[in-house]
Amino acid sequence: MLSKSLYTYLKQENTRLTITLENIKTINVTLIGAINSGTYNVSSLSTVFHLLYLGGGPDTINSYRNIKLLRDNKVIKEIDLYEFFLNGNKKNNINLRNGDIILIPPYTGRVTLYGEIKRKGIYELKEKSSSLFYILELSGGFTEKASKLNIEIERIESERNIIINIDSDSIHSFNVQDGDKILVKSI
């Protein structure tokens, strides 16, 4: 751009140009729903992930999957951290501007997955329910010892615990719900 204007000599082959950024502007952003919620003064080069890191991430009741970036009282981006954690996708890691607010609302639903799967743990649902297949995909899938014919769902219905047995034919059509405990049994 400079070579097209006043500095045409920059087009020469042996010319080098070095630009140094000395003073980086500070911006004021707010983080709500994190372990360390509050207002932060950060570099104007800061991103959403940087601010989430500074705030310690979502607290125990808040979502990893429905984080909102508010700018001028409008949601300009919804961020699902699972895309980054599971796939390394940083497309939602956009730069912050002065006055931005990152709002981490409470989670919608969670299920617990254990037994013969690759990543045991608690998984957050984006909706009130989700297919069992999708949750198993998030976990990395079955181990070599898994019995795909014997998946047990423990669910609370009408203030009672019930057990639902699922086989491999029903994985795609069965929806898990908030609070379900999913056990993938061994062969």
Q: What is the approximate shape?
A: elongated
Helix run count: 3
Structural class based on helices, strands and sheet pairing? mainly beta
- Main sheet: strands, sense, barrel: 5 strands, mixed
Strand content: 35-45%
Number of DSSP strand runs: 12
Order of helices and strands: EEHEEHEEEEHEEEE
Question: What features would you describe in this structure?
Answer:
A hairpin with a 5-residue loop joins strand 6 (109-115) and strand 7. A five-stranded mixed beta sheet has the order 2-1-5-3-4, with helices on one face. Strands 7-6-12-9-10 form a five-stranded mixed beta sheet, with helices on one face. Strands 8-11 form a two-stranded antiparallel sheet. The chain is elongated and about 75 Å long. The chain has helices at 48-54, 81-87, 132-138; strands at residues 26-32, 38-43, 67-71, 74-79, 101-103, 109-115, 121-125, 129-131, 146-157, 160-166, 175-177, 181-186. It is 11% helix and 37% strand. It has three helices and twelve strands, in the order ββαββαββββαββββ. With 187 residues, it is mostly beta strands.
Quick recap:
With 187 residues, this protein is mainly β. 11% of the residues lie in helices and 37% in strands. The protein is built from three helices and twelve strands, in the order ββαββαββββαββββ.
From the structure above, extract its key features:
mainly beta; 187 residues; 5-stranded mixed beta sheet
Topology:
Layout: E1 26-32, E2 38-43, H1 48-54, E3 67-71, E4 74-79, H2 81-87, E5 101-103, E6 109-115, E7 121-125, E8 129-131, H3 132-138, E9 146-157, E10 160-166, E11 175-177, E12 181-186
Parallel strand pairs: 1-5, 6-12
Antiparallel strand pairs: 1-2, 3-4, 3-5, 6-7, 8-11, 9-10, 9-12
